[in-house]
Fold these 2 entries.
Entry 1:
Amino acid sequence: MCVNDHEAHQSAQPLGEEQLRTLTRRGALRAAGVAAAAGAVGAVGLGAAPASAGGHGGGSHGRVPRDHISVQLYTLRDQLAADLEGTLAALADIGYTRVEHAGFVGRTAAQFKAALDAVGLRSTSGHVGIPQPFDAATWQRALADSRLLGSRYIVHPFFGVGANGIIRDSATWRAFARDLNKAGALARKAGLDFGYHNHHYEFFRLDGGTRTGYDIITEETDPDLVHLEMDLFWVTRGASDPVDLIRANRGRIRQFHVKDMNDAGSFEDAGQGLINFARIFEHGREAGIDEFIIERDDAGIAPRVPADAITTARVGYNYLANLRF
């Protein structure tokens, strides 16, 4: 999520034939998983699965605990702007107990928390950009808002584009990684876990070589200070395999953004597209996963209308709640 998500999608190249074949091959079992999920409606026992969900052993099936399903409110930005209280109530009616905020919809943090409290929702996470250039006092105010909300996570939502377009030099990425460490250290002192959310820019090659921005983020930030919020759509759009990244960053991926991809390389509701989420979630314990966050970037962007975001939230929640892997 970020205000640049639509621009990020516009800048992404169309899927190549080989990438599409690979996605389709990896997703071949997805349809069977969706069918099994549809047949298992109501079969999930609340609270029965561990918090660090994902993976299975001894022949038992893994599942996503319902109380660890969240939704990124950027998905519903237009609906929230029109009717904050009604939209939050609709999310609670679907079954959500957690949300990840993307700002406070013109309210103060206290007012926003009151609206959440009124319908029984918690903002366990929030997208808040670290100041650039880094300013500790400004960041401390953001941390104070997160503590007021009762959040556990605070996540930087976007990096990779500057005044001259896509950032292709490693020096800029290294400087940003240093700022992430500073932000993470202050967050830790405030009792919060600080994370970084990717798009596809992280997977461009830098300086004409083979190293990527994601390499720098993962290698030059302290795992104790900066966890990874892996956006599964944008990882895939960047031509990387989420499972490979999980194996390379064991225990560090606390949050998944769960958004699907259609065969044109654009957005789709979770479980309706090409991405084989079951295959990824099998590695959830290896990742260190705690939250599964539904998101779709194109809410309110033609031909979609703002009300479609509620459908996205409902489809995504039901898909995750009933998926077995």
Entry 2:
Amino acid sequence: MRPGEPAGPLDLGLLRTFLAVHRAGSLTAAARVLRLSQPTVTAQVRALEQQAGHPLFERLPRGVAPTAAADLLAAEVAGPLDALAAVAERGTHEGAAPARPVHLAGPAELLSICALPALAPLVGAGLRLRVTTGLTDDLLAGLRAARYDLVVATARPRGRALDAVPLADEEFVLVAGPAWARRIGPGRVAAEGPASLDGVPLVTYAEDLPIARRYWRHVFGTRLAGPAALVVPDLRAVLAAVVAGAGITVLPRYLCAEDLAAGRLTALLAPADPPINTAYLVRRAGGPEPRPVADVRARLLTAARNW
């Protein structure tokens, strides 16, 4: 047997424990999900590593990090194990262990404002849901590695390993608080373009101004120059700062619609062709889909018609 080769068939029970650890990112959290002791989970992971012939996790001060081999193994076994779990759950009786949580990931703002309220009835009816927020590229990598069941992505993924369907369109709006809107002047942005905004503080969620740069290029046909006055990596915080008078920003309409309607924000321009970004609901291609995952997916696709 060559180094790194499995010593024989991998134990199904050990694979189940491995997948729980891979998804939880922690031996302790996986132990809670599996209703096992942490020493038992640790022993089972070590036993699987011995069977596999190579390490599967790097032990960290807090939790564990999967190796590349672990990501490949998780992607291979997640579908079959989830299918077996779904069959087992159909035969469980009252008082049995609850179904495995559905792991949903996506942008913090879109999940908070739109997705989680839509899923609240399912949670109230017994769905177990775990949510992770982050950047699309990182989350899609986690989906490929079977750490998540579904990802709301701000760009369509490439390749055939993932199945993506359009979920909703985000329309971007150039906004300011009432005080700055009065200082800039009504209709002035439409008449003078970006020159009317010279000297107005710009608030954004990243130093490279991704949303604002796209707005300037799409609407004004020019490159946005100059640094932001305030950078905070959460669009909800950007919204709060602009409402409080920090300056101007570009936000998705779903995030600021209530503040626009209430007069806490003012749209500085109403272009005939506003910038739009499509969000996608993404899952791993092929293989059976557990019923709870299918329910979450169907609810999101239905609710997104009104976002």
